[in-house]
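INTERNAL AUDIT FORM
Audit reference: QA-55
Scope: verify that the stored structure record matches its stored sequence.
Auditor: D.O.
Record contents follow.
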Amino acid sequence: MIEDAGWELRWPPTLLTSEGRWLLRPAVLRLSDWRDRVEHLLEEAFVGSEARDVFSRTPKDSRYENDPFGEDPEDLDGLAFLKVTVEAVGRFRPEREVKPYWPERQRGSLAPPDVYRRFVQLVDDMRVMGYLDQELPWGCVDGGPEIDPSPVLEQRLGIPDLWPLDESRRAWGDDTFYGLIEVIHDLVSRPRHRSYHSYSDCGWHWSEFARGPGQALYRWRVNRLLEHSDAGLRLADDGEDVGRLVASTDAARAGLATNMAGRTDLSTGDRIRHALALFRARTASEHDKRSAIVTLAGVLEERRNVLKVRLRRKDEGALFQIANQFALRHQGTGQQADYDPVFLDWVFWWYLATIELSDRLIERTDATPP
């Protein structure tokens, strides 16, 4: 089976799924260079060239037919190959990282100079793959447009002479580095089409840019890098602060935040997304965190009747006791104000989880009478 071929996935599985499904759209299937686009995707998404090479050997004249899937990749036609690859995406092995050698193991987390250097390598790699070509094109020997990145970065960050990154990185501080991470995020997009310009070895020309997939891949790669540092930050994947550095959390809370940020009920969803952006911002103050909690408490207050019906006795009152008595929502004389701000983190995530609980209770109430 295709998932047993031993290929390693360089991309996050969800991105390969979404870009593979885009290539399976009827309008895209009819493009004359469809196979070239699939080969481009496989080159990017998998380590090495084996997946692309196997696809290139599939029959070319049957990709519109619904042939049965073969047991071996070599038995599939091009269309079936892509379908099976997309369906099996969760079973491919992720790219294996090189185990750290002795000096790095003794250091533990990467020091800032090493993080800076690896970030420069990451940006260089994505630029070579055309991910910056929409905003910062290389140019062409025939006179195509070329944009110098340095003025673009200066206009956005107010810092001159940042490009080339490898030359400027020795003078970076954290603020410059973090600013560059966020700016590059806003500049990248994935080219879904490429054509090779052989004259004077000009190289690849990129087009049909898709900003969402490009930024998703960039966030994934940058977050993997930041995990090896002591920054305690990650690029947000969702919410109104998507593409901005936020405080990192454990996987459970990150999943909760993703679910809550993806709400489709605009009124409640917008308030929750705003609360998330306030609370997890890199520069969030104690006041910002309190404001975020007050916003969540307001959402819960609107659902108090549902909670009264579904919770036993006066349990719903306990949900509001902290917000009402610990100088969060009101500034009364009987309130507790002398408490460690570290409790704000606990209250925020507890309230966010309680809103998710109330979602389930409301769904149950809509389905059956209490």
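Auditor finding: record pair retrieved intact. The beta strands are 8-9, 93-94, 190-197, 203-210, 233-235, 245-247.
Action required: none
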